[in-house]
Amino acid sequence: MASINKNYLKLPGSYLFSTIARKVESYSKEHPDADIIRMGIGDVTQPIAPAIIKALHDAVDEMGSDDSFRGYAPDLGYEFLRNVIAEKDFKARGCDIDPSEIFVSDGAKSDCGNIQEIFDVNNKIAVCDPVYPVYVDSNVMAGRTGEYDEALGKFKDVIYMPCTEANGFAPELPTEVPDLIYLCFPNNPTGAVMKKARLQEWVDYANKNGSIILYDAAYESFISEDDVPHSIYECEGAKECAIEFRSFSKTAGFTGLRLGFTVVPKELKAGGEKLWPLWARRHGTKYNGAPYIVQRAGEAVYSDKGRSQIKQQIAIYMENAGIIVDGLKAAGYEVSGGVNAPYIWMKTKDNMSSWEFFDYLLNEAQIVGTPGSGFGPSGEGYFRLTAFGSRVNSHRAIERIKKL
Amino acid sequence: MASINKNYLKLPGSYLFSTIARKVESYSKEHPDADIIRMGIGDVTQPIAPAIIKALHDAVDEMGSDDSFRGYAPDLGYEFLRNVIAEKDFKARGCDIDPSEIFVSDGAKSDCGNIQEIFDVNNKIAVCDPVYPVYVDSNVMAGRTGEYDEALGKFKDVIYMPCTEANGFAPELPTEVPDLIYLCFPNNPTGAVMKKARLQEWVDYANKNGSIILYDAAYESFISEDDVPHSIYECEGAKECAIEFRSFSKTAGFTGLRLGFTVVPKELKAGGEKLWPLWARRHGTKYNGAPYIVQRAGEAVYSDKGRSQIKQQIAIYMENAGIIVDGLKAAGYEVSGGVNAPYIWMKTKDNMSSWEFFDYLLNEAQIVGTPGSGFGPSGEGYFRLTAFGSRVNSHRAIERIKKL
Questions:
Q1: Residues B227-234: what's their mean pLDDT?
Q2: Contact, A55 vs A254, CB < 8 A?
Q3: A150-156 contacts: CB < 8 A, separation 24 or more?
Q4: Where are the alpha helices (DSSP H) in A261-376?
């Protein structure tokens, strides 16, 4: 008789953002006239830039014509895209990454969720606390985390690395050595960064211990300060210990277009076995490539026009971030983030729990944010706002919060 | 120290189609002027139909405009697409499938590869032999198949169900009861079908034994005969035992656009646990939806114009199939398939092995097909051709084969 993967039953409740969506939907039904400002899910609001729209139209025309139609894409992505990524995202920053080490996909979320498959089920993972839920949940499903401890809000076999005010929301090197280390900088949800010297310590630590760093750099284009690395491969020795994930979602507004990529260096090994062939095999077996038209859109992101249009969009979001940070501080809140990342991390009011504060903001100010506790126990008492809304809404949200 | 998922090392050689691609590339390099006719990978050649191209352009324009831009898609797909699928693919055929039971994805390959994750790692799978490699390989990666037996060409813990001339290339009900049964009809690679009465026996067998049928209906739009079911849900009781996969790839030329869907009935259970919430959780955790523009393209497939344009395309492919089947028979080959499926399944010449025949056809006639043995041991001595080429090439391929 067929039976289920019981690891799924260890997952506490439903996925964070689904829960938020349900709460907001139910509030909207009860208050149909409520003018809700959404600063919860990190979804962008500006339309796709004109240079990218043009590339999409051109590619659509190609697909409609006999002599330019394209069927299955190459397993690992089209060369036109992998070449420009290697050139502009890596070589331009002094990182020696070859196009063949770049795997184009439908987004960093898929890759971050799937990457664990190529590792042993007994490998122990370490995650920041708070953390983007996908890293943990995908490992729960795989049976790598042990049971959930309701009281602690933690899985038994996961190494949680607290990111707190005290350490500037960047974790200490763990004393118990993990096999797989998930790092995301600029960080979701806290907006914190790791300077290059600090990240180099992690690379050295991983190389010394034979750990693999799974580095999520989805927010690198929001970096505004100079000594913050855009890629882990800016650190010496990172090609021997790190896989990096990148996304077009926040950089270029691709949340609804779906495009990302993962870098697996050809020489990278775990326990003596190369990882590149495993990830290539996974890609070839369970995936069929990102749509041609979307890969052409990705290529346009790197064109001169595309770049300058996207830079403007990011500037708009980061101005929003400034408005929100300054406004919250003026309203008496403790706030961090919002400088090298589109996320603002704030302490709740009057020691409310994160979910209490969620309900409070939704009910009293019709503002949707994300409860910090949804990202892990050290997120309790915190709240995440995103800078992806409109200018008008960023101002209005701050006005509403100030009035509370 | 990190280590790899050693199940990957059980996979014999590389993925079938990657091997073919390498062989063809190497032949092309040695014979740069060779005029190769590709009938190997089941990739379509006709451009996307005009009604769908129009829908794509319209959706691209929406993405470029402030008031119509769309970010993250709903987890399970847009309602406009799920509604029309439920209506036209299922309700119109008397199948009681609700839009909420439809999960939109980037293709049937991904879903067929990923579905095994929600089942217990100790569940035993049964597959047709020959079989589309993704079903087996994804289970190898998960550790569900045991070791590969080189001599037999089989994994130890998999139930192989031979599909031979004797049973019309449709398997017998297995004597050892499997937990998970992969069926694909119309079949890839043999082009065989299962009539409704026969498929009903499988549904009854699964319900009696508590097995789950994973039914790949990617080729249903090529069915030309009346008593062949388009969906397993045409059988009584299938909602209690079956998950169905569908694809837009072959139906509407979406191999380069990427769109498919999976049906998981709300009431379907394995070992007493409902499967719908597990698949929904997997979707929400590891996937972020198909691109909005591609979902709009999928919707256009069901419009009156879209339908009639696609019907014409399918008719062209199936006329190719007829030309190939008749031509091969005239050349003295034993042939099946090609009536309800775009695949032609032929016996090799002079008892050559499948790979010998592959090399023979490539070297002597510059035709690329797929060795039957790549699909499993019972495929040895067979060869698959596809009808997805142009009319001209279908004729030319037959002329070349006749001349050999």
A1: 98
A2: no
A3: A150/A12, A152/A377, A153/A373, A153/A376, A153/A377, A153/A380, A154/A376, A154/A377, A155/A10
A4: 276-286, 292-301, 304-330, 354-365
In the stretch 163-202 of chain B, residues with CB closer than 8 A to chain A read 179-180
Contact at CB, B256 and A46, closer than 8 angstroms: no
Q: Does A13 reach chain B within 8 Å, measured CB to CB? A: no
Residue with tokens 């260096």: A265
Other CB atoms closer than 10 Å to residue B177's CB: what's the count?
Answer: 17
The beta-carbon neighbor of A5 closest among B2, B60, B118 is B118
Three-state DSSP class for residue A174? coil
Question: Nearest chain B Cα to A54, which residue?
Answer: B60
Give residue A14's pLDDT: 66
- Looking at residue A198, the DSSP 8-state letter turns out to be H
CA gyration radius, chain A: 21
Q: Is A151 on the interface with B (CB under 8 A)?
A: no
**H or E element, residue B25:** helix B16-30
* Residue whose structure tokens are 């003026």: A330
Reported as a pLDDT band with limits 50, 70 and 90, residue B10 is: very high
Asked if residues A47 and B63 have their Cβ atoms less than 8 Å apart, the reply is yes
Name residues whose C-beta falls within 8 Å of residue B227's C-beta, 6 or more positions apart in sequence. B195, B196, B197
Q: Does B389 touch chain A (CB under 8 A)?
A: no
CB-based contact, B275 to chain A, within 8 Å:
yes
Written as six digits, the tokens of B139 are 């289970």
Segment B126-152, tens digit of pLDDT: 999 999 999 999 999 999 999 999 899
Strand partners, B261: B104, B246
Whether the pLDDT of residue A17 is over 90: the answer is no
SS3 at position A251: helix
Q: What is the mean pLDDT of chain B?
A: 96
d(CA A244, CA A225): 20
In whole angstroms, what is the distance from residue A398 CA to residue A328 CA? 7
Residue A237: exposure state from Cβ atoms within 10 A (0-12, 13-18, ≥19): middle
* Residue-wise DSSP of A364-384: HH-EE-EEGGGG-GGGTTEEE
B8 close contact with A: CB closer than 8 A: yes
Name which of A56, A114, A281 is nearest B286 (Cβ-Cβ).
Answer: A114
A116 to chain B, closest Cα gap in Å = 9
Q: How far is B37 from chain A (nearest CA, A)?
A: 16
CA A136 – CA A148 distance, rounded (Å)? 11
Q: What is the mean pLDDT of residues A62-80?
A: 95
The answer to whether the Cα torsion of A124, A125, A130, A135 is positive or negative is negative
d(CA B166, CA B171): 10
**In whole angstroms, what is the distance from residue A89 CA to residue A250 CA?**
15
- Name the 3-class secondary structure at B17: helix
| Residue B349 DSSP label | G
> Within 13 A of A230's CA, how many CA atoms are on the CB side?
17
- pTM, two decimals, is 0.96
Question: Is A402 in contact with A367 (CB distance < 8 Å)?
Answer: no
Kindly state the tokens that stand for B76. Answer: 């399970």
How many Cα atoms are found within 13 Å in the side-chain-facing hemisphere of A227? 7
Strand partners, A213: A181, A242
pLDDT for the residue numbered A18: 79
Question: Which residue, among B10, B68, B285, B386, would best test binding to A if mutated, counting the most A CBs under 10 Å from its CB?
Answer: B285
Residue A351: count of CB within 10 angstroms of its CB: 9
Give the other-Cβ count within 10 Å of A202's Cβ: 24
